Q: What sequence folds into this?
């Protein structure tokens, strides 16, 4: 007898099938890696863009609180020829004139926020001149302290009294704060009469200069005259294109070349913020430019 042997065929992959599968998996893996790397770089870039915008916006918010208080006729004290530095007079406390006796002035000042008062550094005062189109006349103190600095008056009746030569002004209270009568000296004779508006101002310089925090980059510096804080770097880094541009009366676009300080009626603040680092495939920091226009208040005439 002749017999026949039968058996089951073994299952599995051929070498060709394994090679094809590995090639396909390699293609998919490479595509996935490329996608993940691309998304990672995109996320990193967007993070850097947000960082650059944050630098510009934070600087803008800090400057606007000062610049929006500047008067149109005397608010700008000086500008640099390169448009990188501007010095402004910022009012921080207002009141009414009570009495002028030679070089001695008494005024009734409105209540002021305690934080504003603590952060301000007196640099002089101004009064509204009725004979000169209502413009403010700036007075620079002889010294930052002593008789030229506002001090509590020994003669409050100059303001509150009802007698001859007394102003009969009521001291105002608001939100738990009370106004004050102040006496201070002046290097020139004040020509204002009783009830003439006055204000105290501080002299603030903003400048785009070399950063101490980011070598090779630009920082925004703020200096308050007579302040113990000195010259402070308040925000960085910026690109070298960060600067001020200037509006003058009768023009609807800003100038790059600085005009005379007395003719400036507003500013374009060019804030080109930078990220603190580059992205993975580019070591250069990311930039984001923000341009903000600020026009000074109390414009008398054009």
A:
């Amino acid at each position: 007898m002749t017999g026949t042997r039968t058996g089951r065929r073994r299952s599995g992959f051929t070498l060709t099938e394994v090679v094809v599968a590995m090639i396909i998996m390699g293609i998919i893996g490479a595509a996935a890696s490329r996608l993940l790397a691309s998304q990672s770089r995109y996320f990193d870039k967007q993070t850097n863009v947000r960082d650059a915008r944050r630098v510009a916006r934070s600087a803008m918010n800090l400057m606007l609180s000062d610049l929006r208080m500047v008067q149109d006729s005397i608010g700008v004290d000086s500008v640099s020829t390169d448009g990188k530095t501007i010095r402004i007079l910022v009012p921080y406390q207002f009141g009414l004139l009570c009495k002028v006796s030679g070089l001695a002035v008494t005024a009734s000042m409105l209540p002021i926020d305690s934080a504003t008062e603590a952060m301000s550094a007196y640099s002089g005062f101004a009064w509204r001149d009725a004979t000169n189109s209502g413009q403010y006349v700036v007075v620079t103190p002889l010294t930052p302290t002593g008789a030229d600095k506002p001090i509590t008056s020994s003669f409050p009746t100059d303001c509150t009294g009802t007698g001859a030569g007394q102003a009969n002004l009521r001291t105002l209270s608001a939100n738990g704060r009370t106004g004050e009568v102040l006496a201070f000296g002046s290097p020139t004779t004040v020509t204002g009469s009783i009830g003439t508006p006055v204000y105290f101002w501080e002299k603030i310089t903003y400048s785009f200069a070399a950063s101490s925090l980011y070598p090779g980059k630009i920082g925004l510096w703020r200096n308050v005259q007579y302040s113990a804080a000195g010259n402070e770097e308040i925000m960085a880094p910026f690109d070298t294109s960060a600067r001020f541009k200037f509006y003058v009366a009768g023009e609807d676009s800003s100038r790059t070349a600085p005009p005379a300080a007395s003719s400036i009626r507003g500013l374009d603040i060019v804030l080109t913020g930078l990220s603190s680092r580059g992205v993975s495939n580019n070591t250069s920091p990311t930039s984001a430019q923000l341009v903000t226009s600020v026009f000074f208040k109390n414009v008398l005439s054009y």
Notes: The CA atoms of residues 96 and 147 lie 19 Å apart. The longest strand covers residues 85-101. The chain has a mean pLDDT of 82.
